[in-house]
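Continued from yesterday's entry.
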Amino acid sequence: MSLDDVSNPSVDFQPKWVDEIRVNLSAVQRRVATLKNRRTVKKQWQAAWLLKAVSCIDLTTLSGQDTPGKVRRLCAKAKTPINHDLQAALGIEELAITTGAVCVYHEMVGTAVEALKGSNIPVAAVSTGFPAGLSSFETRLLEIKASVAAGAKEIDIVITRGHVLNANWQALYDEVKAFKEACGTAHMKSIISTGELSTLNNVARASMVAMMAGSDFIKTSTGMEATNATLEVTLVMVRMIRNYNELTGHRVGFKPAGGIGTAKDAINYLILIKEELGDSWLNPKMFRFGASSLLADIERQLDHHVTGRYSAFNRHAIS
């Protein structure tokens, strides 16, 4: 899979676009309730949605216990996320489904690149002092460049939350723009860290500024905050993506991360993307899940679709 044809070139900072943003909390909650209260898709339609979800997963390991062996096993799972017997039972072998990417710390980029050679699965590296983003600015720039040099095709950067909390939008724009320049040809996902921004207005404004500065994706969370991805912040962020597209003609991808662990969760997010942004965003070039345990639950649901029984989680280990 190539992302070469999807890129946000950035625009000049437009303070008016930020100042005009207002989020109606009760309207957001009512819209999200329409997703949570509807009936879940079933049978072959559910299986089709879940296979789409698998192709959009950034299969992730971000642990102090990461080793080259663990990362190589994760990469093997990324190349064959649905076991061969289940693929045969579903009749999907010819689809050659893989996950959207493998996401690791910088130290494991080289291992992942080698393990994924020939697969066209990109390696994403978390960067810029992940998860807190409080390393020196120079250190964060060097970290991006080092991961790109090691073979990472995608860089997940974290913003300085203080710029948002202090409403210093120009500083946020300048920071993200510098990170984008350091990425070179690698695609950049900006992690907004929504759980640490206090209000949905801040989430919306930070999203807009990050896109103006050239983010190719905006991402909810590091997965390590007290509150990570939710449907409420997702709705706010995807509407900012829609607004940015209307204002500039540039398309930006979206990645919810953290706390998405069930097949039902995945379908809710996919349906929200379909309804708010349209089918052209329902692919790995424009949408990703940041997840680790999600794939195991999806495999269990697909296994149930075939056999009528739920298998144990330990039959679907990811590494």
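--- second protein ---
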Amino acid sequence: MIFSSRYSRMHLMLIRLALLTSLTILASACTHSPSFSQSQIDGSKLLAGHLFFPGQPVPELDAPHLLTLTDEMRAFVRQHTATAITERQKMRAILNAILKEGSINLQYNLVKTYSARGAYEAREGNCLSFTNLFVALAREAGLNVHYQRVDIPPTWDEVGGAYIYNLHINAVVDMAPLGRTAVDFDVASFSKQYHMWEVSDQHAEAQFHNNMGVHMLDTKELPQAFLHFRQAIEISPDIGYFWTNLGTLYRRAGHEVHSENAFLKAIEVASDPSAMSNLAQLYRHQGKSERALYYNNQVKVYHSKNPYYQYHLAEKAYAGDKFEEVKKLLKEAIRLRKDDHRFYRLLALAQLQTGDITAARENFQQAANSATATVDRVKYSHKYDALTHIR
């Protein structure tokens, strides 16, 4: 493990939370209201739930109690922090107890989202599960710890016609006067350049329900998916992709009017471009070509301003041996954002494929200069050194 702090010279540990939406986007698009735009959407109608529970009361979900500890878990904390004196020692002791064999030895499972108690008892879980467990145990040990959002560059992975949007949530421990130290388990994805900000326990609970909704949607348990998406929205109604996921659920259930309104609500509250993409698709299916074209154009505008989408296209072009297209796309991505080492690396690889050794060498050097992880800097430097001997 590696330690770091935002304010002190330690290293950092990361954990990733993956959330699914229909389209991955970075920022809000510049949109103008079309002549067919609707008035404000009544979100309460979308959250009523009668379409999924016809003729019966809509059930309420039990609170997840994300951070509740059992007596056994409290004893676990006392046992593993018994000899720890400083806050830093307590943090190390808890992390070792979570991850090392002979203790919890928590195993990663992408599709399992648990509360702290659930992760402790199952000995597995995804990234949000890891974070829930650490936050709960660390607070029991007296540490001042909170959830933290990390604004990492997105990845664009097409899965079954949808895109996976990776968000990052980790934990941050305030160890004054040493500073605030983040706790995370994905070192390779971390950069000190990423913006980080503290989020509430309620925000984490909303993300928990959204994850559960995505899982239930994937397993076709649509009524349960609705209950979780509704709960996420009731906690954080201003997060656009929660409404987008609800719209995706309604469309899969065959309720197109509710689906349309949920997507429109996502645009209303957060200009969510994934909702725009879904609306364009829905309107094409319905034969409403003008509306489909409008929202499709908004997505294109969004893509044109998104360096990570350009990178996504460049990866696809590289896989298809379209190296000139790769170079064009990546030069645009670099124009939009100059500090992502991945852009320079793929550009250099494309230039190698077209025989431009000098340009490839320069871009491997740029990749090394932009990388924050030592392993990446060393790798790119080796590429640069190797190319200096090629005439």
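The first helix runs from residue 43 to 46. The two ends are 41 Å apart (CA to CA). Will compare against the first tomorrow.
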